[in-house]
């Protein structure tokens, strides 16, 4: 949206909330160079470079002034249509003159009647939201977790719980994490202060945004978005003990796990779906097989994959490191090489992998991890390291600067500048 006219059209179609993006950005000084991803923004908006950020001249008053112009235009259009308030205009699609749009040759074949349909309403009926939506949060499983974890939330006492879970229980752990962060701040509590074991099938976004101090174990399976926004917590998934299938050959969770995680750990005994660890920026994870687009847009953290991957691995991966166990040598064909290189692991990598696999085996009783550890160091040669090129240069520049006593920020910016050239 850019004008008051856009707001009016949206309101007449039924909108009650309006979002602005590009227009206020331009008001703040954006010149639409379309280089936001290159760290070369000439007006200092989309950049981390201190020299470029000095060029930023935007002010909050500019945006306020722009929105006042929007409001003024909306007020004028409301008066033209005979409405006193914007609320009166909501859903009044009959006030839209759509003739030019529908009869235009580019609209040939389009049927806009579903969008412009006016349901029969009595004169007393309202077309806008006049009641708050009940999300059923008072019945959420987290309410039980919060009550049972009162000692930890108030005093930092250790708590161990075990509860059943069903797939109607969504975002389990999120409200608990909110109360922990509200009391103890962003640093949270020591690992494993609150330990909760669940049995069953978890709904979407299990353990989303869980902070440090909370460990959530699930004996069963889960849907999409497990560990979304993980913020320091620990998440462990493994199949029921009585299962007769091989976990490493079966899917235990859905798509987009660990989306946007900033820190924490995840150990998964089995395979998962697509876009695993997408936008991960700091969490550590072990999984035994993933679908397409693994580690997409990843900017930090470490991921170990002990099984097969889908295609397009590491697309847009600008940071972090991935280690893929590839005894058959088929992984390179599945990698998107635009931003990453494939390398052999060094001693430091081998030490990290072995320690992490030992933890994975301890938490999930993984036979895959145990077999690799038992055949170490021979098995270490089967790991492929996925390293973003620019990220590697930045890490090397930081290490050299710290060793020589130089300014780390200046060293990183020099790498960024040379990369642009």
Structural features, described:
With 421 residues, this protein is of the alpha/beta class. It has two domains: 4-116, no CATH class; 137-420, Glutamate synthase, alpha subunit, C-terminal domain (Pectate Lyase C-like), CATH 2.160.20. It is 32% helix and 17% strand. It is built from 14 helices and ten strands. It has helices at residues 4-12, 22-27, 50-53, 60-81, 86-89, 99-103, 113-116, 141-148, 150-155, 174-184, 347-364, 367-374, 389-404, 408-420; strands at residues 159-165, 194-202, 214-222, 231-238, 263-268, 281-287, 299-305, 319-325, 340-344, 383-388. A ten-stranded mixed β-sheet has the order 1-2-3-4-5-6-7-8-10-9, sandwiched between helices. α10 links the parallel β1 and β2. The longest helix has 22 residues, at 60-81. The chain is globular and about 80 Å long. The model has no long low-confidence stretch (mean pLDDT 94).
List keywords for this structure.
single chain, 421 residues, alpha/beta, Pectate Lyase C-like, 2 domains, 10-stranded mixed β-sheet, 14 helices, 10 strands, globular
